[in-house]
Amino acid sequence: MNPILRKSVLGIAGLAFTGGVFAGPVAAHAADTTHAAKPVAVTVQGDKLIPHGVQGEQSRIELDDEQTANVKAIIAATKKAGMDERAAVVSIATALQESKLENLGHLGDRNDHDSQGLFQQRPSTGWGTVEQITDPEYSTLAFLKGLKQVDGWQDMPLTKAAQTVQVSAYPDHYAQWEQQAADLVAEHWNK
Question: Most CB within 10 Å of its CB: which of 4, 124, 136, 188?
Fold first, then answer.
């Protein structure tokens, strides 16, 4: 291969890798306590919570009081941001994937980056300070600010909208949480 062309290709590959590593958080490697649920029937396309239907097999976890409080904090922050129920579904599904709705501190050896909080946001990439990104309201508002900047996020499948904000190493994993996220929003939005 031509040396100039080779350097260009390697440079582009390096930028792509760096963008994925440094532009956003990578999913935490927390203990996986999920179980795959049987595929859920596709929701009607007109549903505002799941306008595209769920994609693939769905996972579901039982929530404790702390996780439920984090769901309520995400919903409150979504309302504060002036966004709708669909934004809350995207946010909750993202937090389910990233942290199982647990406000995680630094995971040490289980995480080779500085990702923390519900959304596994990184101080080193500009999401905020450790104190900020471990505050459920702040971290949700930061996620939603990123979501608002995604043109047409409302018309995207959940996993694409979440991935555009998060830049995860596992972009398709968000989809498995859409049904539980929608159920949580339906349960807690009007409380």
Answer: 136
CA distance 83 to 99: 22
Q: In this structure, what token pair is assigned to residue 27?
A: 């999913």
CB 34 within 8 A of CB 61: yes
Are 62 and 166 in contact by the 8 Å Cβ rule? The answer is no
The model carries a pTM of 0.73
Give the integer Cα–Cα distance in Å for 145 and 178.
Answer: 20
Q: CB atoms < 10 A from the CB of 173, how many? A: 19
Q: Which residue has the tokens 């959304």?
A: 119
Backbone angles phi, psi at 60, to 5 degrees: -150, 140
* CA proximity to 75, closest of 87, 63, 60, 65: 87
pLDDT tens, position by position, 51-88: 878 888 999 999 999 999 999 999 999 999 999 999 99
